[in-house]
Amino acid sequence: MINVCLADNYPVVHFGVKSYFKDHPEIHIVSNVGNFFMIPEALRNKQIDVLILDLELDGLTSIYEVKSIIKNNPKTKIIIFTSLSEQIYAPNAIKSGVSGFVHKSSKLETLGVTIQKVHNGTIMLSDSIKKNLALIAKQNKSERLYRKLSNREIEVLRYLSDGKKNNEISKILNLNEKTVSTYKLRLLTKLNVTNLVDLVNKAKTLEIV
Fold first, then answer.
1. For 130-173, what is each residue's pLDDT tens digit?
2. Is the four-CA dihedral 183, 189, 145, 82 of positive or negative sign?
3. Between the CA of residue 26 and those of 17, 43, 144, what are the distances in Å?
4. Is pTM, for the whole model, over 0.85?
5. Which among 97, 120, 155, 177 is most buried, taking Cβ atoms within 10 Å?
């Protein structure tokens, strides 16, 4: 059996996923958590082979916290299951050490196949992501600059788009306010804009946020 922990904000997601895999011959949902702070205890109390995690989970503020889980629980594979843009977040998530990325618009059958393959050591990306990455590799540098945003830059950009100020972002991400300002300047340069309004608008146009 593949023991799975599902970490998601919404009870309807927990109910749907657990119901779908109820009679599955290999996949067993043994733990459900509703916020990020419950994950360490869940991983301590039971042997979890695969953790299904939403990037928008309450309490999860940074991809670096996901990296910490991976470091502290090397035997547990992580699959991102989210409604955030696959094109933007999947490459960074995989780079951080997660084993799979499934968009919430996918069928639960796809999630099931991903769980099984990830458990067997495969890194799972959808065909659309693979094609997208192949296209990016063929683009010139200026066309793919926005694809080269770091995890931190994407996080800062998301909070800026939500209307957060530099000092608020510094507290959320536990960063120095000057460091946040540096990330903001990098974002302006990488996305080739000169002010915050244009930065947010371009980010939305490119589906980064």
1. 766 666 566 554 445 555 678 788 889 989 999 999 999 999 99
2. positive
3. 14, 19, 40
4. no
5. 155
